Amino acid sequence: MRLLAFIIVTLTGAFLLYGTTEFPDWGDPNSPASLHVSNYYIEKTYEDTHAPNFVTAVVTDYRGFDTMFETAVIFTAGIGCFLLLRDFRGKKEHYYQHIPSGVILHVKDEKKLLPIGKEFGYMDKEWVPPDLINKTVCRILIPFIQIYALYVVAHGDYSPGGGFQGGVIFGSSLILLAISYDLKTLVERVKEKLLGIFAALGVLIYAGTGALCLLMGGNFLDYGKLAPLIPGHSGHIRALGMLVVEIGVGIAVMAVMTLIYINIVSEGRHDEGL
Amino acid sequence: MSELLSLVIAKYNYWLYVILMMIGLYGMIAKNNLIKKVVGMNIFQTAIILFYVSIGYKTNASIPIITTADTAHGAVVRAADYINPLTSCLMLTAIVVSVATFGYAMALAVRIYQRYQTLEEDELRMRLSKE
What percent of chain A has pLDDT over 90? Predict the structure, then answer.
């Protein structure tokens, strides 16, 4: 099997390498990919949209449909993970830690729940005590990571950034909370329902912006027609439309990343995990 | 031999991507563990992303964000001054798809493990043929 795979891989690689001999050189400004539509994007984007970042302009304006369904793909992946893994059956037995003495209690009666607070703390079966240094550093860092994520989303059309990137950074800050403390801390602060609503809300903002353009008498996702809604910004209206769409993408990506993480590490039970 | 060597040096970026791509393909074909197969698929996708981004590169060009000099009224934007934004856009969406497929594949792997207590392909096939 290994030998067969090696032969297949070598043959495919040899064919591909033979094909690359006719490819354009590294950094060739006249390569076929840079001749046709990309020149239009570079030369006319600022005139058309007033967005300095070409990539964002192309992603959310010229290729807006593509990105809308991309957000739908993300949403579908989140829903798919939820439907595959989510397990609503509660755990049969619970572990608690008596905090003053450090004694670990194993409660086998599933109806008997101890109050969580100063006296008793949650406990996982494969529990590792959270390191004080890790916890402190993460607690200090997480707000800054989140502010940076918001900056990346808000600056999507001015500097490198955008909804996907900012959303992933925000989602990773929530995942960091789950890693440095434990999964229960995250699930208590960010409810599953909220994540589901956010994932759907992001797609809704994107599609809703497109539908709003339809209502204002333009084509779907034709942000230029939104000008009467925001008076005084008619020059920058397409960049503002992009910003709204990017916020929708960011919300959806953030929610779905966290949802996928929580479902996978806890096998859908949302109680204990990494 | 020296001709071949000069050919490799002129197109060394493609050689790197093809090698990376083939590592991913080998992982997808030869590895027995489902997680390793998925990681192989991810390596393959990474190679394609690098390939696209390198296609869009231009010598002596800056990132695709307009400079303040070019935003002035009446300034002519020259396409040779900025790298190709289109390939970056296509790969932005490809990264998103790769993340979505990776997450979904991991969820499937968790389900398979819950049902069969294994992720090895041959053991899975044995269990499936018994049922």
Answer: 38
C-alpha distance from A132 to closest chain B C-alpha (Å): 31
Question: Which residue of chain B has the CA closest to A44?
Answer: B77
Chain segment A55-93, per-residue pLDDT in tens: 888 888 888 899 999 999 999 999 999 999 988 887 767
Report which of B93, B58, B85, B50 is spatially closest to residue A37, judged by C-alpha positions: B85
Q: Name which CATH class applies to B2-64+78-130.
A: mainly alpha
Place of tokens 């990137």: A165
Work out the minimum CA distance from A85 to partner chain B, whole angstroms: 7
Judge: B107–A267 Cβ closer than 8 Å, yes or no. no
Domain range for A258 is 30-85+130-265
Number of domains in chain A: 1
Is-contact A58 A45, C-beta < 8 A? yes
Q: Does ipTM come in above 0.90?
A: no
Beta-carbon contacts of residue B83 (< 8 Å; ≥ 6 apart): B56, B57, B58, B61, B62, B63, B64
Q: How confident is the model at residue A127 (pLDDT cuts 50, 70, 90)?
A: low
Domain ranges in chain B?
2-64+78-130
- pLDDT at position B34, please? 93
